[in-house]
Amino acid sequence: MELKNYFQRAIKEHFALGAINFCNMESLQAIVEACKETNSPMIVSVSESAMKYMGEYVTYLFKAGKKIFPHIFLHLDHGKSFEICKIAVEMGFDSVMIDGSSLPFEENVLITQKVCEFAHRKNVLVEGELGQIKGIEDDVRSENQHYTNPIKAKEFVEKTKVDSLAVAIGTSHGAYKYSGEKSLRFDILSEIEAELPSFPLVLHGASTVDQSLIDLINKYGGNLQTANGIPKNLLEKAVKEHNIVKINTDTDIRIAMTGKVRQVLYENSKEFDPRKYLGSGREQIKNVVIDKINNIFFSSNKI
Ligand SMILES: [Zn+2]
């Protein structure tokens, strides 16, 4: 099934596609194995900085993963320019995000239109973003939270012809998501859905930052004392009761691997075989992805 069809099916059947970032072979292997075990479709994302880190390996690693489990899709996360989106389209990505959310509305419309015109000719989907999602992750940085304006969202989708839209309703990037009450603006989400019926919506900054994973990091020499994420029940509501069809996760994959690598190296001070600690990290990522498939994305057996 094509990614576009998955989005429509996800709206009808109230599940979501996970969009999980990878930055090396082990993280992609873990995601693919988790999907294979649960028969879950999945989007695997790379940020611009992950593209720089992996270079040409991105598409070859992805091809290897797709050979093992065909129901995965390659996505560019937070493309900041037309040029990077063009490169991703030409590299054979299934979908690209053009993030013009920090630009004035009209400029965001123009750059997103331009990416859509180019990508759609090659049958590549485009995700846009309206509103600003707080936090820091890779090169994406925003001090402010600006919720998505529902009326503007409709205008944006009509003018640009994007295939999906990332909305700002209170999630944030990174490992420190909340300092106060943990909530999401479901009222705004409902208003957006009233303006854009059955339109695929995307949540960024949606890692749960599980305390057990943070504890593991801190126990073995790390210092992420106040890290916290989006509670699972809020994400479940976004998927089960709303049109959120893509949920982005990067931080949880990073903390899963970091905690396990720290533990293995700490407990085995003579170990110097990278397969031992990266292999354990890979196993931990796989467990985290399976948990998300079952409890947040509800995407098992949806291939
Ligand atoms: Zn994001």
Give a structural overview.
The chain has 303 residues and is α/β, with parallel strands linked by helices. The chain has a single domain, classed as Aldolase class I (TIM Barrel, Alpha-Beta Barrel), CATH 3.20.20.70. The protein is 50% helix and 17% strand. It has twelve helices and eleven strands. It has helices spanning 3-13, 25-38, 48-54, 57-68, 82-91, 105-121, 150-160, 186-195, 211-219, 232-240, 251-267, 274-297, and strands at 17-21, 42-47, 72-79, 95-98, 125-130, 134-137, 140-142, 164-167, 172-173, 201-203, 244-249. The strands form two sheets. Strands 1-2-3-4-5-8-10-11 form an eight-stranded parallel β-barrel, surrounded by ten helices. A three-stranded mixed β-sheet has the order 7-6-9, with no helix packed on it. A hairpin with a 2-residue loop joins strand 6 and strand 7 (140-142). Helix 2 crosses helix 12 and helix 7 (150-160) packs across helix 8 (186-195). The chain starts with a helix and ends in a 6-residue tail after the last helix. The model has no long low-confidence stretch (mean pLDDT 95). The site of zinc ion (ZN) has 6 residues, from loops.
